[in-house]
Specification:
Elements: H1 6-12, H2 14-42, E1 44-45, E2 55-56, H3 60-65, H4 69-99, H5 111-115, H6 122-132, H7 139-146, H8 158-186, H9 191-198, H10 203-231, H11 235-240, H12 252-262, H13 266-294
Antiparallel strand pairs: 1-2
Helix pairs in contact: 2-13, 4-8, 4-10, 8-10, 9-10, 10-13, 12-13
């Protein structure tokens, strides 16, 4: 007798499939169906009002996007913001983690203040910093003027606006990288460090050849989380700059919102979303592959 077919196996053992069915149904309704519907919208000229005609365009929208200068500007702004923000966060987080890598209990009290920005909503953070960075009434310019310096147009200048976004993101999410890297440092064995000290290694040599190779997988995890989160930045941009001045802070996620709900181009926005999901998937897979290579033997 031949082996039973797949349908016969399903008929004989329906119980496991029934257990999985609710989870699959939720996944389908919340993830698979919306994504497929978004791809379908991206193939059309799709106005918000249902009374207006919806015209099938096929892949013409995608071809237009890759010729659109505004799209490439948003890609550049997102890449620049992501590189600056994530790079500074990882550097500061690693520095603070090394600084507080001690067994003395007194230093444990310094860890809690670093965690406070994580608990604040990004919208609230954006509003707080918008008031603080105001040109006339902001406390930052008030402090600069009190020491004889001129106020800075933080949110009205193209260069300063992007740097202000980086500053706000670094302030809020550096504690996250610190927390991950500090936990990684606390879990490392002490024997390799003690052996390096006995062999006469300096502090920098110990960090370069012992500490960082051991903590590299944890470092890559922090990098993965922060790159993907910075890539989809929207809320702080919406509160602080609305993509301006000009297109200086028009990141990809904000560009999608503006095209879809401000310019009434839902098909264009859906196509941008598909491209953004594809790029985020590639980034995640690349970082996961890097993380698997960094796993210690």
């Amino acid at each position: 007798m031949g082996s039973p077919s797949i349908l016969e196996r399903i008929r004989r053992r329906p119980y496991p499939l029934l257990l999985v069915a609710p989870a699959f149904l939720v996944l389908f309704l919340l993830t698979i169906y919306p994504f497929v519907y978004m791809v379908w919208i991206s193939l059309h000229k799709w106005p918000i009002l249902p009374t207006l005609p919806r015209i099938f365009l096929g892949l013409d929208t995608y071809a237009y996007i890759f010729r659109d200068g505004e799209f490439w500007n948003s890609v550049w702004v997102t890449s620049l913001y992501m590189g600056l923000s994530v790079g500074i966060q990882l550097a500061l987080g690693l520095f603070l983690a090394l600084l507080l890598d001690t067994r003395y209990r007194v230093f444990a009290w310094f860890r809690l203040p670093f965690m406070i920005p994580i608990f604040v909503s990004p919208v609230v953070v954006g509003l707080i910093w918008k008031f603080m960075l105001g040109y006339d009434l902001g406390i930052v310019n008030h402090l600069l003027r009190s020491i004889g310096l001129e106020g800075v147009n933080w949110l009205g200048d193209q260069t300063n606006a992007l740097l202000s976004l980086v500053l706000v993101d670094v302030w809020q999410w550096t504690p996250f990288t610190f927390l991950i890297l500090h936990a990684g440092l606390m879990s490392l064995p002490r024997e390799p460090h003690e052996a390096a000290v006995i062999d006469g290694a300096t502090g920098f040599q110990t960090f370069r050849y012992v500490t960082f190779p051991l903590i590299a997988p944890v470092f890559t995890v922090a990098l993965l989380f922060r790159v993907l989160d910075a890539f989809k930045l929207f809320d702080i941009v919406y509160i602080l700059t609305r993509g301006g001045p000009g297109n200086a802070t028009n990141v990809l996620a904000y560009n999608i919102w503006r095209k879809g709900f401000f310019e009434n181009l839902l098909g264009y926005a859906a196509a941008l979303s598909v491209i953004m999901i594809a790029v985020a998937t590639v980034l995640a897979l690349a970082l996961i592959r890097l993380m698997s290579r960094r796993e210690p033997a």
